[in-house]
Amino acid sequence: SQTIHQWPATLVQPVGSPLSLECTVEGTSNPNLYWYRQAAGRGLQLLFYSVGIGQISSEVPQNLSASRPQDRQFILSSKKLLLSDSGFYLCAWSRGTAEAFFGQGTRLTVV
Amino acid sequence: DQQVKQNSPSLSVQEGRISILNCDYTNSMFDYFLWYKKYPAEGPTFLISISSIKDKNEDGRFTVFLNKSAKHLSLHIVPSQPGDSAVYFCAATSYGQNFVFGPGTRLSVLP
Hints:
Structural class of chain A: mainly beta
Number of helices of chain B: 0
Shape of chain A: globular
Radius of gyration of chain B: 13 Å
Oligomer: heterodimer
Helix content of chain A: under 10%
Largest sheet of chain B: 6 strands, mixed
Structural class of chain B: mainly beta
Radius of gyration of chain A: 13 Å
Order of helices and strands of chain A: EEEEEEEEEEE
Number of strands of chain A: 11
Helix content of chain B: under 10%
Distance between the termini of chain A: 38 Å
Order of helices and strands of chain B: EEEEEEEEEEE
Number of helices of chain A: 0
């Protein structure tokens, strides 16, 4: 069966510090991978999605970037965090024709 | 421009009665629709989906109805249980690429 791992679960970072969130998927190959963010009291905003290694589509211009160094690894990064980067970050995967499955999320608080 | 809308931020229903959650979309290119359930500080859990070539899909207590001409779908939960209390997200996708989510509806099932 397929599983998705996302870490860390919670993170408190000072403004201006770098960020690296990692997501890995097991049990499948060549998945579509996604990063979403849920701001407080709001819906899920798609940040990045990837259909293959090195292929990243950015949906919203912002202070974040994503990379896919391996088939089942998706990384969300920032060089300098802003207060507005606080939120709940979710990684997800899909086979490209059906449902997307989510990780448990990372609660990021920028202070 | 919100492509997927859930106009009711919250809904309260008595245990045992029917819960009806509504969702509207604007993009006629969407060909697959999904409902997710989310508890606080957790990733969304996939509930049920429907292809654009169907108008109804049923799975246990959950039924999703799609009205393509109205660009409207709904999720029916019968009978509602206290454990169903959560935020429900409607999502849509086109050719399985990215998934666009609505802002969510908070369902409270009262005992």
